[in-house]
Amino acid sequence: xxxxxxxxxxxxxxxxxxxxxxxxxxxxxxxxxxxxxxxxxxxxxxxxxxxxxxxxxxxxxxxxxxxxxxxxxxxxxxxxxxxxxxxxxxxxxxxxxxxxxxxxxxxxxxxxxxxxxxxxxxxxxxxxxxxxxxxxxxxxxxxxxxxxxxxxxxxxxxxxxxxxxxxxxxxxxxxxxxxxxxxxxxxxxxxxxxxxxxxxxxxxxxxxxxxxxxxxxxxxxxxxxxxxxxxxxxxxxxxxxxxxxxxxxxxxxxxxxxxxxxxxxxxxxxxxxxxxxxxxxxxxxxxxxxxxxxxxxxxxxxxxxxxxxxxxxxxxxxxxxxxxxxxxxxxxxxxxxxxxxxxxxxxxxxxxxxxxxxxxxxxxxxxxxxxxxxxxxxxxxxxx
Length: 384
What we know:
The chain contains 16 helices and eight strands. By secondary structure, the protein is an alpha/beta fold. It folds into two domains: 3-276, Peptidoglycan recognition protein-like (Lysozyme-like, 3-Layer(aba) Sandwich); 291-383, no CATH class. Helix 9 crosses helix 11 and helix 12 (304-319) crosses helix 14 (338-354). The longest helix has 18 residues, at 221-238. It is globular, with a radius of gyration of 22 Å. The chain starts with 5 loop residues before the first helix and ends with a strand.
């Protein structure tokens, strides 16, 4: 261990002791070769990850409406901050069999101030699953490839550091407690759960999982298990039901084009519910092979309905001379990504050129997603 590692290690040990009696053993494990390995891996070059997904993103893209101004506090009778404390969260993580690695500064209020989120009085209303989206293939992906960036790579408009999530899961399943208070991770997105658009950062926990991203399902079994345990702990600490577990694509798929995680949200909810000891029944899919749920026709959605639409759309497009290799080379993957958007747009363009009624119909409508009329046009039946 180099001398430069000692201050960080001692801070981690001290913080762990302050939080729980078992903390010393946990923090002591971050020593010697592991500490050196983490920092060496975290020092990946920009060439390794530039331009891919969450990792390396600008502070402004993560900030949402909290970029350069202090938000208006919620009106509350009590002045006590309702956000779960660090001690509460550590206790819940330990209850699920995790030994969280407490990073230096994980409960320092300075990062919440830097994120312009201090004093807001908000409570968590969601727990969001992310992957780091490094763009680095799994064979070159380091165990803690994104850790250094998550801890210190994101800056606010004044150049001050903002932590990029609350929890981070390394390739080997190790869980790092990045930050206990409100911070940036979600960016701009749709309103949900009574949270205004673009303000999810003030109302949610973010869990980052080390991954190539790019819709590649490359998480290790250890990561999937650990991330599900972290989500369960965060939901319990926040007293939230299982349907408040979301992923980045559900919130920011339409607004930002986010695609993480590459796994179906039903999988995460099923695993997390099992950790919590509660029941979760995944949404049923109609047995009619022609049925397509309009609710699933959006960027980032995945599953049977998306695949049905893709197959029908590809057949229709091919029969009308559109080159699938140009718009949708990956085929019917069951994931509504940029290729499905491109092919939908191309079909709409074809229809507008061939029909005045379609030209009139599409005025003011998005050409990236199918309407009920397009679903019927490709031979399928739209349902809610």
